[in-house]
Amino acid sequence: MVDSHAWQVRQYPDPHVTEDCFELIPVALPDPGPGQVLVRNTWTSVDPGLRLRLRPDAPSGYFAAFPLGRPMDGIFTVGEIEHSDDPDFGVGTTVWHSQGWRTHSVVDVAEEAMNGVARLRALDVSAMTPQSYLGPLGAMGLTAYAGLHVVDGLSGGETIWVSAAAGAVGSLVCQVAKLLGHRVVASAGTDDKVRWLLDDLGVDAAFSWRDGPVVESLRRAAPDGIDLYFDGVGGDHLEAALEVANPFARIALCGAISDYEREPTGPRNLFLATSKNLTLRGFRGSAHVSLLDEMQTRLGAWLADGSLQSREAVFDGLASAPTALADMLAGRTVGKTIVRL
Amino acid sequence: MVDSHAWQVRQYPDPHVTEDCFELIPVALPDPGPGQVLVRNTWTSVDPGLRLRLRPDAPSGYFAAFPLGRPMDGIFTVGEIEHSDDPDFGVGTTVWHSQGWRTHSVVDVAEEAMNGVARLRALDVSAMTPQSYLGPLGAMGLTAYAGLHVVDGLSGGETIWVSAAAGAVGSLVCQVAKLLGHRVVASAGTDDKVRWLLDDLGVDAAFSWRDGPVVESLRRAAPDGIDLYFDGVGGDHLEAALEVANPFARIALCGAISDYEREPTGPRNLFLATSKNLTLRGFRGSAHVSLLDEMQTRLGAWLADGSLQSREAVFDGLASAPTALADMLAGRTVGKTIVRL
């Protein structure tokens, strides 16, 4: 029998994620039955959204909370098929699926097909690394691209502010927005990240939100206002965006990481949306699977010719997954946080 | 010389509008010069938005605050031309313009043309009353229609919640939405208003927000959730809408009357916009002047055949304008609040 392990949730964090919220348990893998494949996982994903599922009252409409004491489902993972009787998924095929944070997964092809973008999918790794499908060519790329799409941001020529810009999604949004011809203002939480955004990603202006009131930093970085805002933070960042927004600006509400470990407050100046004819569009990448092929084609070409960078914060070994999550939520990682199994 | 009077602001209300915030002063009208017309005003408008201009820090992007000690500009008004040398605006023509809360206005045609929808405009009063141009055929109708437009609500067939539904705009939104084939849920602040909405306007469900937590009343009235929300209230109403919204629901942010006389808080559950793929669109009718003709044609036809009602809360005499505003803000009026001069 395969030596297999999986993380499960022991207790929900209150408020901060620590290693003892989880336990790594041995799993007796069933032999794959008809319509099932056995995947040896090679890379698994660590995303801010996981924090929202580590509480009993996950937001309605979102993925359900992780149940206590059971392996965590619904986490993007890449692996190689070790056993299969499905002709579409032969042994040795690299795939992604949604049963992460474990060494091996027995995936039911039909059942997994209900998971939308996360369904079992064969990946072309002839030119791209397997783990790029957890980043720019996967859910991160789709979220970045869909966010630009929902605010009519794919045409270029405007000023866009991207917060959490050194994160997995934000760093893609910055680069794609530049490639599309926008003026890009980026913000992050450390001077090193700001330096990386300016020097390596080539954004037009950048600031650290720790350097003073966000609205003042934003005004200095975008003296002519912003037309688009890609929000990964919420809180004072969203209030600053409403304040500095030009008439008819559009805001993509992607996440609100500043609210995930405290009581959210809500933007006190939301009336500016009315007075300035602003649009706020909440969205999830998974609602825009129809854009996946287009996104992979465009971002794949930019990756291949070197005009798009994909920085990874790699943690080694399944045992490091909780630390990876805690580090990412605390702002100690840059780019896409992933675990190599 | 004409015996002419105008209201001006003596002090900004804190927090409630009272008569002594204003003073009615005699005005020495200049003789109209070239390109100017003299209008004897017959009806002037009383709108919730006036409250936002009765403070030193009017929201950016909105109309400027009313300056203290000067006649109030930018208030829709209907009147008859008494003197003119402009061939397009002959003596006796009924017009609207933006210089309200006074008995007479000398309007500079070219200057007024800068005011968008509020510019001097000749009105067809052969079939419609003059004051209907302050209600369904004017800014109120345009705001109602534009709000439905910005949330893709002009097609019908969905469930829409309309708050402040017994107000000038809300009562139009309810009726237009019904005529377009929506299921309409309405809320207001008194049992009489709720009765009127159900019995006279024919909405499908209605409740008073005073009868308990708004979110619970809304859930009972819309057990299958809402697809559209027309927000005139903000605060707990907007939070309830986010909570009860179906996936991909759209919210028209028209106003936030519950916030106008206190510190706004902002919706604490805005993350639901992300998790449920919701869109919030702030808008002002004045940004959609291009819809004015279409709106007047459609609403005019419905008014003419009796399928659209226009209820008016009429106050008599210019001296009553501050009382009319205070009554409207306190929820003591139904329909369009107007002053007959």
Residue share in β-strands of chain A: 15-25%
Average pLDDT across residues of chain A? Answer: 93
In CATH terms, what is the architecture of the largest domain in chain A?
Answer: Alpha-Beta Complex
Low-confidence stretches of chain A: none
Largest interface: A-B, 38 and 37 residues
Q: State the oligomer.
A: homodimer
Shape of chain A: globular
How many strands appear in the DSSP assignment of chain A?
Answer: 15
SS class of chain A: alpha/beta
* CATH-assigned fold name of the largest domain in chain A: Quinone Oxidoreductase, Chain A, domain 1
Count every helix of chain A, treating DSSP H or I runs of 4 or more residues as helices. 9
CATH class of the largest domain in chain A: Alpha Beta
Distance between the termini of chain A: 19 Å
Q: What is the string of SSEs of chain A from the N terminus onward?
A: EEEEEEHEHEHEHEHEHEHEHEHE
Rg of chain A, nearest Å = 20 Å
Q: Mind summarizing the main beta sheet of chain A? A: 7 strands, mixed
> Which percent bin holds the helix content of chain A?
10-25%
CATH superfamily of the largest domain in chain A: Medium-chain alcohol dehydrogenases, catalytic domain
Q: How many domains in all of chain A? A: 2
